[in-house]
């Protein structure tokens, strides 16, 4: 099969009268693989787009990948010709074939399982939206704000937990599974990311036995743990329903008319619900974290946002009904998605039959990538595209301005959610979570860059020190226990990045994260200055000397606003910044309403599913990530 794979390159057979798509030449057999950096690969693909045009092709280890940097071309092909462009490519690292297993709607081929699950998804999304998502985002926003007040340095955990808890409630009616859901999302993300699981880089490994390939054994255990988790969650909701105490959820909707969805087996419902849980938990925290980054680097916009929130909401938290009156908030959210797309490379489609576009031949079997990163920085649509500028959605002089401002700007149907028949199903959930989540943070907090550190390492702004120093930070009486094990791990941040594990003596506090990738010595010096400025501790060291690796040409490794994680869904690498209360009275009010909820039993702690140590050494449990 290897021989066939490398010798049968379909894109080389050119029908008469048609041109080959332009693109980099690459090397024999491996194609352009060595030219694609793992860190911010989307920037490289966008650069090729400038060089070769808005549609070009790249041979990556024998597969033909077509990259589209223009919204119009993406629509012309992926939407208008949806009949042939709506399949999905094979993801080699998954144990069950993603195209036919029916486990993951976003990765399923355009087959019957996809049709019936998409219908089901339409119903559950419509129902939740009609019920204003059962106010779950508003309920969880209070807990998030209390966590942010108590442990600002753990802001990324608070934001990820907010999203995961809301999604858990939507999926199964309760929030206890939120840490488990985060872990399921994290492991699946590794499994499906080109820069994640080894099986995606070296597919032939997946045909060897488990005992020879730990990555395959890891995936088998992941898949089994995921299935068991989904089954447990389904059973829990069934029990809740029997006892007539099941809160509204997607699972309840499934179970209430379980025979009518056309699912082939009971487990399909457990997956259909669980997959939406994972999709939500994976994605929405990314723009929330981008929001924090943007507010630190473009400080002029936070006062404008706060002015709007204060005017519209006064001394209460933002609510769903405020949406029409909060155009500035919607503009900030829309701009976060444009400036730093959560899925920057897009989710690929797969072409099932030969096609032509403007005289170019696009061979069947091509993997089609709508390059969201490039699409959202077309300078004719987004002048000065590299700048974070929410005003481009609010001032008539910009091409993106749209009225009425009670509706626009909106993220609904914006380019970041894909194309045609595979369009994202969760836009409404994302819209609600971001409105409530980002609105609540800006309503309660000021954000700014962390003060520069003095040469001796001491902070020039002592008032911020205690806020961020893990050692000195006392958890307040009401603080929610943050499950540290559920935090973003070293490995997740660096999957696919060539650095060594931190040694113990280099390890500083848990709130400092490594996030480096190989650079040449000169560049490293420049970065050192930048690192100090940002206050990110670089806590690892290379255990054995390695030859310096050249930073990929043209890839910006210095701009701190480009320090993003490497997996399919890109999040800013956690960074230090000042998160300060705007108003003591508001802080008290939030604590009071949160405590009221707590005493009514609205907030339960996270639950473990696999016993001690999250089952690390057992048959089922958390895999090493
Ligand atoms: C900011 C948040 C989100 C972003 C940026 C995002 C982005 C995307 C993208 C780019 C696709 C691929 C579309 C294509 O292939 O053309 C997609 C598909 C999908 N998304 Fe989202 N998504 C988000 C949130 C969510 C949420 C909250 C859910 C569910 C609760 C969800 C469920 C799905 C599903 C089920 C699909 C697959 C549709 C299909 O293949 O037929 N997404 N999303």
Automatic annotation (TrEMBL):
Q: Give GO MF terms, alphabetically.
A: heme binding; iron ion binding; monooxygenase activity; oxidoreductase activity, acting on paired donors, with incorporation or reduction of molecular oxygen
Q: Which CDD domains match?
A: CYP64-like (cd11065)
* Swiss-Prot/TrEMBL cofactor(s): heme
Q: Which family does it belong to?
A: Belongs to the cytochrome P450 family.
The family database entries (InterPro entries) matched by this protein are listed as: Cyt_P450, Cyt_P450_E_grp-I, Cyt_P450_sf, Cytochrome_P450_fung
Record-given protein name:
Cytochrome P450
State the organism named in the record: Glonium stellatum
Residue numbers spanned by region Disordered:
451-476, 497-520
Residues that bind heme: 424
Q: Which domain of life, per UniProt?
A: Eukaryota
Q: Which UniProt keywords apply?
A: Heme, Iron, Metal-binding, Oxidoreductase, Signal
């Amino acid at each position: 099969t290897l021989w066939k794979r490398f010798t049968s390159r379909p894109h080389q057979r050119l029908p008469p009268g048609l041109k080959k798509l332009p693109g980099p030449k690459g090397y024999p057999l491996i194609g352009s693989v060595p030219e694609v950096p793992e860190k911010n690969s989307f920037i490289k693909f966008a650069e090729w787009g400038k060089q070769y045009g808005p549609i070009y092709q790249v041979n990556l280890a024998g597969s033909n990948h077509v990259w589209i940097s223009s919204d119009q071309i993406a629509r012309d092909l992926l939407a208008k010709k949806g009949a042939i462009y709506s399949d999905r490519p094979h993801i080699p690292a998954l144990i069950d074939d993603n195209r036919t297993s029916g486990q993951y709607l976003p990765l399923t081929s355009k087959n019957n399982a996809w049709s019936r699950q998409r219908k089901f998804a339409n119903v559950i999304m419509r129902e939740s939206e009609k019920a204003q998502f059962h106010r779950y985002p508003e309920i969880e926003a209070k807990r998030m704000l209390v966590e942010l007040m108590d442990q600002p340095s753990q802001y990324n955990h608070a934001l990820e937990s907010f999203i995961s808890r809301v999604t858990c409630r939507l999926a199964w009616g309760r929030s206890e599974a939120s840490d488990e859901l985060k872990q399921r999302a994290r492991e699946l993300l590794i499994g499906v990311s080109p820069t994640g699981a080894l099986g995606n880089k070296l597919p032939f490994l997946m045909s060897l036995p488990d005992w020879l390939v730990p990555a395959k054994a890891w995936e088998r255990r992941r898949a089994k743990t995921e299935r068991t988790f989904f089954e447990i969650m389904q059973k829990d909701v069934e029990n809740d329903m029997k006892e007539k105490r099941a809160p509204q959820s997607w699972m309840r909707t499934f179970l209430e008319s379980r025979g009518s969805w056309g699912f082939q087996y009971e487990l399909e419902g457990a997956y259909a619900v669980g997959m939406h849980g994972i999709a939500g938990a994976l994605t929405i925290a990314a723009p929330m974290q981008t929001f924090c980054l943007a507010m630190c680097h473009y400080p002029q916009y936070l006062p404008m946002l706060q002015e709007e929130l204060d005017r519209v909401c006064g001394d209460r938290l933002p609510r769903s009904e405020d949406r029409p009156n909060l155009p500035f908030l919607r503009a900030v959210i829309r701009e976060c998605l444009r400036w730093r797309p959560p899925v920057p490379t897009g989710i690929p489609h797969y072409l099932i039959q030969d096609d032509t576009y403007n005289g170019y031949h696009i061979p069947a079997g091509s993997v089609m990538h709508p390059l969201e990163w490039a699409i959202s920085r077309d300078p004719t649509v987004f002048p000065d595209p590299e700048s974070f500028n929410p005003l481009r959605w609010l001032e008539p002089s910009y091409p993106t301005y749209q009225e009425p401002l009670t509706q626009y700007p909106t993220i609904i149907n914006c380019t970041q959610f894909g194309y045609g028949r595979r369009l994202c199903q969760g836009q409404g959930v994302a819209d609600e979570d971001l409105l409530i989540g980002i609105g609540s943070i800006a309503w309660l907090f000021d954000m700014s860059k962390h003060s520069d550190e003095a040469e001796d390492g001491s902070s020039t702004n002592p008032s911020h020190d205690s806020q961020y120093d893990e050692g000195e930070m006392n958890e307040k009486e009401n603080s929610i226990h943050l499950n540290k094990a559920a935090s973003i791990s070293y490995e997740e941040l660096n999957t696919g990045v060539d650095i060594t594990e931190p040694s113990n003596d280099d390890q500083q506090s848990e709130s400092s994260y490594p996030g480096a990738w190989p650079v040449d010595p000169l560049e490293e010096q420049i970065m050192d200055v930048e690192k100090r400025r940002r206050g990110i501790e670089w806590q690892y060291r290379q255990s054995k000397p390695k030859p310096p690796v050249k930073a990929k040409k043209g890839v910006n490794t210095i701009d701190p606003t480009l320090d993003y994680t490497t997996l399919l869904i890109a999040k800013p690498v956690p960074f230090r910044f000042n998160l300060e209360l705007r108003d003591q009275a508001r802080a008290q009010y939030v604590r009071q309403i949160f405590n009221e909820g707590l005493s009514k039993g609205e907030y339960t702690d996270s639950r473990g599913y696999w016993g001690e140590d999250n089952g690390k050494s057992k048959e089922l449990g958390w895999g090493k990530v």
